[in-house]
Each structure stands twice: as structure tokens, then as C-alpha cells.
Amino acid sequence: MAGSALRIIRPLIRLSSFVAPKTAGHLAFKAFCTPPRRQQGTAKRKAATKAASERLAGATRHAIPYPCGSVTAYLFEPKGQKPSGSPSPSVILLHGWTSEAAFMTAFVAPLTAAGFRVVAYDLPAHGDSTGSELNIPLGVASLAAVARAFAPVHAIVTHSFGGAIAMAALARTVPGQPAVTANRLALIAAPSSITEITRQFGTTIGLGRRGQAALERRIHVVAGNPVEAFEGRDQLAAFAKPTLVIHCRDDRELGFHHAEALAAAGPGVTLEPVKGLGHRRILQAKAVVESVSRFVAG
Fold it and tell me: How far is the C-alpha of 189 from the C-alpha of 293, rounded, in Å?
């Protein structure tokens, strides 16, 4: 949200938090779940987007239906895959907030070379998928549909908010959603606490105490669990399978303390800190791609 717009609406949101907190909570929830429309950005970003998108050329494109629409998935087959044979185990690549499948494709070549099918897909309201909103229940529903379409799933590799979705799916934190299973999970620059993110958002938009409480009640209604149930450490403990956490010490979008909290989930979690890669460039770093590929291959 632009700074000028924020200065205008903050007083209005704060007032509505006292006068009509339920309404303020509902409006805040909608804003919280609505990613900005895709923008062209700078010349540097255009070049990066073009380079990433070109990596999708070797994929087979699929529209995968899920209860709230459909998501666009890109399937990369391993070299030497026999059409008549059983499908190779799949690795699902799950991007973050305001990103898309194309930006996860640096992992495709080493993983297909290792014999895996690789599936990258656009989350709801992102890329070429349908919808205008994304939240954890929608993300989990879409991931369950993709996992079912490309079973068996060996591993899930995630970035940023994609990690929160994968942890909720694997730990079955959202009631009523189909089960998602995987043998391994890689979390790159993932958040550890949706509670913390929700409250930072409330502070940013000027949501008062009553409005914040209404926002969290709305999350409880939609997700079927309170926001506190989506703590990453607890979800990884429930998943209880090998997990790799890679996080940049100078990540300005999600501080390194998120990685430290995730690493505290138990001995099955391995933390690999990196430096100088920020929150997004980390996905293109050769050392990160190699580390994730080794981990997935096990």
C-alpha cells in the first residue's frame, strides 16, 4: 500500500475499529488476503521476469481445478522418463506472496536431472491462476489439488508465504481439507508466525485493539482454527519429517528470527543461514539451488 494512501486511511481505520470493529475486521481481512495486481515494475524486474518465464517453455501446462477455481501448473518431466512407466515422484515448487511459478524455476534442471517430476504452479490470485484473494485455506486447497493431480509427492520446495501454506497443509492445520503428504520439505525465507505477521499488518494499517481482535476472529472463522494454530514451529513438529530451512541473515521482509524459530521445532529441522541475498534474490543463488537439490534427493 502506498505511503500516501496509508496516511489517508489510517485514521479512518482506527476510528472504525472503535465505532464498528466487526466491519473494520472484515475489511482488514479482505485487504490482508488481496495481493496487488501484477505490475510491470522497473526494467530490471522486467528482465528478471522475462528470464524466469522463459524457463517455463519446457513445461507442459495444466489447469488444475480446486473448490474455488483453478490454478495453472507447469509440469517438467525428468529426462529418460518412459511414457508407459509409473510416474516418477514429484517435487512441488510453491512460490510466495506477489510472486509466481516462473520465479521458482531455478530448481527445475537439477531436480529433473535427479529423476524427479517437477511441478511449479501459480497460487490463487497469482500468475495465470483464477481468483482475486489468497489466504492459507485457499492455498492449502490448491496445494491439495495439485498434489493429488501429480501424486506421489516426494518433496515440497517453498518460498516465503508458500512455506506457511505448505506447513499448514502438511500439519493438517486447516480442518476439512484433503491430506497432503510429502517426505521432505524445504523452506526458503519462510515466516514462522502468522500471528506476528497479522499483528504487524494491523499496526501498519492503523487497526486498533478491537479491530485487531475482530480481524483475528475472522481468520478463525475462515480457517477453522485461531491464528495461533499456524505457528510454524508447532506445525513442523507435527509434520515430523526432514525439513531444510534456508534464510538470509539480512532479509528485510522476514527477519532471521523466523528461521531460528522454525529451527527450534526439533532435530529433523536443518537450518542453513546465508548472507547478502535478501528475501527474493535467494531463489536464484547457485549455492541455495544446489543445497535444496541435495536435500530433496536425500
Answer: 16
d(CA 108, CA 128): 19
Cell numbers for 142, please give them.
490448491
Does residue 266 sit in helix, strand or coil?
Answer: coil
Helix (H, G, I), strand (E, B) or coil at 55: helix
First-to-final CA distance of the chain: 41
**Residue 253 DSSP one-character state:** S
Q: Is 195 left (phi over 0), alpha (psi -120 to 50) or beta?
A: alpha
With H, G, I as helix, E, B as strand and everything else as coil, classify residue 243: strand
Q: How far is CA 83 from CA 79, 86, 87, 147, 150, in A?
A: 11, 8, 8, 20, 15
Global pTM reads 0.92
Separation of alpha carbons 149 and 121, rounded Å: 12
Q: Is the pLDDT of residue 164 over 90?
A: yes
* Type of residue at 32: F
The DSSP code for 127 is: T
Residue type present at position 205: I
H or E segment to which residue 214 belongs:
helix 209-223
CA angle 68, 21, 5 (to 5 degrees): 75
What are the grid coordinates assigned to 227, written together? 491464528
Residue 60 corresponds to which cell in the numbers above?
A: 507442459
Q: Kindly state the cell numbers that stand for 78.
A: 525428468
Beta bridge partners of 184: 155
Max Cα-Cα span within the chain: 65
Q: Which pairing describes strands 117-121 and 153-159: parallel, antiparallel, or unpaired?
A: unpaired
pLDDT tens-digit readout, 267-294: 999 999 999 999 999 999 999 999 999 9
Q: Which of 199, 211, 283, 208 is nearest to 248 (CA)?
A: 283
pLDDT in tens, 191-247: 999 999 999 999 888 888 888 999 999 999 999 999 999 999 999 999 999 999 999
In this prediction, residue 6 has a pLDDT band, given cuts at 50, 70 and 90, of low
β-pair partners for 69? 66
